Amino acid sequence: CIRDRAFADQIDNALILAALPDETMRLAIGSYSVSGGVSYGPASSSYSKGEYVVILDYTKCTTVPVYALADENNRVTILEDNDAAGVVPVYAGVGLRLKANITVQKGSVNLGSLIALGAAVEANQASGSLVVQTLGISGESISNLLPMPSEISVSTIQNCIVALGSIKAKMHEEDTQITPRIIGFNTSMGTNEVLTTSFVNQLMNHNARIHLGQEINFIDDMDEDDTFDDG
Question: At CA 64, angle to CA 61 and CA 67, rounded to 5?
Answer without folding.
Answer: 155
